[in-house]
Amino acid sequence: MASDATTDISKRDFLYVATGAVGAVGTAAAVWPLIDQMNPDASTLALATVEVDISSVEVGGSLTVTWRGQPVFVRHRTPAEIEAAVNTPMEDLKDPEADSARVKEGRAEWLIMVGICTHLGCVPLGQNEGDERGPYGGWFCPCHGSVYDTSGRIRKGPAPANLVVPTYEFLTDTLVKIG
Ligand code: FES
Fold this sequence. Notes:
Elements: H1 2-38, E1 50-53, E2 62-67, E3 70-76, H2 79-86, E4 110-114, E5 137-141, E6 146-149, E7 154-156, E8 168-170, E9 175-178
Residues 117, 119-122, 141, 143-146, 157-159 line the site of FE2/S2 (inorganic) cluster.
């Protein structure tokens, strides 16, 4: 009898603990993307890095790499794309940020960003040839119609913020370390 009671308690304890653990994992998974977007200062997040060889990305071309489970967009911008980004008046921007603050000094042709829409986390179109890029020639998120320009700044639609620029550095002219 005493032994039956002990078994029952153990089972209940196990079920309780197991449920709690699932709940904790579910919460962490749901919250993480939000924290990640709200806290673009990757110095606190840089638990892993990835090195990317960008030598094969021609002017006008793009490359998508995975960093910490997220897509990272690399765009080799054309002079026209850079000019459009640089010449955009700040008052036209929902999340005002100069293009120069989103690229490395002297390397304006390279735009590197986390490819996750700041609305609800879809991956915007614009990396592949033939993709719809929206009226500003950058990226277009088909989920709810957010439009990003050639600096990855939000220009139209429900997304509240620009695509996040991760921490990265050029190790050489053609090798970038992200993270
Ligand atoms: S997730 Fe991109 S517009 Fe909603």
